[in-house]
Design brief:
Elements lengths: L6 H18 L7 E3 L2 H26 L6 H25 L4 E11 L6 E8 L12 E8 L4 E6 L10 E3 L1
Antiparallel strand pairs: 1-5, 2-3, 2-6, 3-4, 4-5
């Protein structure tokens, strides 16, 4: 069986695979988060589907010769089943875990949108917010209506002149 993919689709598939792998790993360490849960869920679902389809296309690309046709189909089926199982676990757990605001400690005098808040890990029906490790104090700043920046902060080292206590 000959390869029917054009070089541009191979490049697109490769870059999509690379972006989705980075999206699940390295991009998690960037302190920019979604403000709402629904866009976050849509983003991760699209990222997961892009990972699955681009991986199968890359498998087809590298194992497309007639001698490896059966191996390609078996590997693709195993991979898609594994991705489907992970997606089910992902869809069932991600919407349940969300960081919720517990209270506001300080508000910036110059920009009232910038706050220092306490947040906790809300696990929905599974609880959350009951353990001391569930809470953390973060510097919170909305960037757009869809994104916010949150970084851990030590309030003992805070310059109190620029902040109002709440």
């Amino acid at each position: 069986m000959e390869q029917n993919l054009t070089p541009n689709s191979n490049k697109l598939s490769f870059w999509t695979l690379l972006y989705s792998v980075l999206g699940f790993t390295a991009f998690q360490f960037i302190p920019v988060y979604f403000t709402q849960q629904t866009p976050r869920l849509i983003y991760y679902c699209i990222l997961f589907l892009a990972f699955a389809f681009s991986s199968v296309i890359q498998l087809q690309r590298y194992f497309s010769r007639s001698a490896h046709y059966l191996i390609t189909k078996i590997l693709s089926a195993i991979f898609l089943i594994a991705v489907w199982m992970i997606a089910l676990l992902f869809v069932l757990t991600i919407p349940l875990a969300v960081w919720s605001e517990a209270g506001t400690y300080y508000v910036n005098k110059n920009d009232p949108e910038v706050k220092i808040i306490s947040r906790y890990l809300d696990l929905g029906a599974f609880g959350g917010g009951t353990e001391p490790g569930d809470y953390e104090i973060v510097w919170h700043r909305p960037v757009t209506p869809y994104f916010k920046i949150e970084m851990a902060i030590d309030t003992n080292k805070l310059d109190k002149k620029n902040w109002l206590r709440r």
